[in-house]
Amino acid sequence: xxxxxxxxxxxxxxxxxxxxxxxxxxxxxxxxxxxxxxxxxxxxxxxxxxxxxxxxxxxxxxxxxxxxxxxxxxxxxxxxxxxxxxxxxxxxxxxxxxxxxxxxxxxxxxxxxxxxxxxxxxxxxxxxxxxxxxxxxxxxxxxxxxxxxxxxxxxxxxxxxxxxxxxxxxxxxxxxxx
Length: 178
Known about the structure:
This protein is mostly helical. It has one domain (about 5-175): AhpD-like (Up-down Bundle), CATH 1.20.1290.10. It contains eight helices and no strands. It has helices at about 5-10, 15-25, 30-45, 50-60, 65-90, 115-130, 130-145, 150-175. Helix 1 packs antiparallel against helix 2. The chain starts with a helix and ends with a helix. Keywords: Antioxidant, Disulfide bond, Oxidoreductase, Peroxidase, Redox-active center. This is Alkyl hydroperoxide reductase AhpD. InterPro entries: AhpD, AhpD-like, AhpD_core, CMD-like. Belongs to the AhpD family. Antioxidant protein with alkyl hydroperoxidase activity. Required for the reduction of the AhpC active site cysteine residues and for the regeneration of the AhpC enzyme activity.
């Protein structure tokens, strides 16, 4: 399937999502690898079977095997890290922040693709998962690497639209089954 079939599945009441989906993916100023890695990582993070089923094949067609694997790795490691660091941040007992994490996350140091791309994908997944600590951390790494705010915003625009489309289409599927 494809981006076009996903857009056509969006109901009329969510027309803005359909338009935004086309623009944040189809009209992005980001290089193709950054766009499609962000799309794949956020489609996985959205937990929407419909969105993932429609976007994964197109992302795979636009990404090298290394980038495809790295985008999936970003979604996987951030699924763990976002829960861990968000919980640490939300706990009233700040002593947890002094404890060793003890979690393996080697892929962050050696993702197999350009570090900026991996950080951008990790940032976008963190936006969906709502981890402020991870958002701040990845944003700082990106900014230190010379990435401008507009580029970073492109990633979280993709995340926002992919997540919203997933929520909408999954809700429609449930309501249609009733």
